[in-house]
């Protein structure tokens, strides 16, 4: 099934052209205002939904064979009689491995930065035309000189104006006590975490700002071998004057400088920078959540109600949604623990997205997840940031091989959130969750191929 989808600008141009032609041939025929209003209303109710599919590389579910995208209207996305076959008909998003995709708020533009390989770090922008047609727009720009060829980047919520990419490099500082030839006298001091942050003008395809900083933890934490080992998922605060960057901590044994894998998990931390200057780094720490805040491939922190809500991962008590208030500090009076809310153990938020009403869809796994062909089984939950509640969405079917670790994209349209559901190597569907009522609509069929999976919608 195929439908033609026009954006309002295109339709308006066509209506104007036809109107002029008619006006030239007859003064008796005039446009009907009601008809024009109905056409505009119909078009305003739709947007492009771009499905992203990750092709298998060497192993099922690894997504290393590249990323393909295919766009349909929101009407078609909700229609279970429509079949979408991105692996057969999709546009190949440039990337050596799984592409890191972002979309404009209206769904009309796709932003991509290639991940790894010869083109790693290249930023490209595409106008969504429907189906496999994604038309390049503007010039390419490489951010590899600033943050490497495998950058971690995200689109900031500033009206599709800015992207931000980050990296961190680490180096152990050793005091040789004045005897460089005698390693037995070497004393571990700390591990330096040098971060780089670049902001990218998404409109004009140019670099806006770049800064590097050595980011320190407390003296006690560093003496015990803790350091920031990975950063990701920048997000702006409500005032637009601070940039928050999620962080993961690692640890070495100070006595041996060997990696320590069995250690106390510290309170979740976030790096705070002045924006847009990217200066004056500080680190804030939660006393509610423990573990990492860098997420993985999906946006991990969102602005809602003047505060930033952030998921954490690898929390010994199960993932939390944490809250950072307008004072740029964690609000430790806000306690939202997913283990408690869902009645599970070791909940791990893989990806999530709130709508403007404070209701969110969360992709997660937990200690009871089955082990599938590519990893632990995933689930979706509907959460309420205000009530601090969550429940599994039972209307979506689950399979042992339903793998969400690499999940990237949700589409929010009003109070509805679109997701993809398909086990590795099996067909599935788009599902649309009405976050107000909890109602779930089964949408278009997603046609899969062996060993591959879907990583969301944009």
CATH topology of the largest domain: Methylamine Dehydrogenase, Chain H
Number of strands: 31
Radius of gyration: 24 Å
Shape: globular
Summed up, the domain count is 2
Helix and strand composition category: mainly beta
Proportion of beta-strand residues: 35-45%
Distance between the termini: 21 Å
Helix content percent band: 10-25%
CATH superfamily of the largest domain: YVTN repeat-like/Quinoprotein amine dehydrogenase
- Unreliable parts: 1-43
Q: What does the average pLDDT come to?
A: 90
- CATH C-level class of the largest domain is Mainly Beta
Largest sheet, spatial ordering of strands: 3-30-29-28-27
Q: Quickly count the helices.
A: 7
Largest sheet: 5 strands, mixed
Please name the CATH architecture of the largest domain: 7 Propeller
Keywords: Signal
Signal peptide: 1-25
Short overview:
By secondary structure, this protein is mainly beta. The protein has helices at 8-25, 33-44, 74-77, 86-89, 144-147, 219-223, 338-342, and strands spanning 48-54, 67-73, 83-84, 91-93, 100-103, 109-113, 122-130, 133-136, 141-142, 152-155, 162-175, 187-201, 206-214, 226-236, 242-253, 258-259, 267-274, 282-290, 301-304, 307-311, 320-324, 336-337, 348-354, 359-365, 379-384, 389-392, 411-413, 416-421, 428-434, 440-446, 453-457.
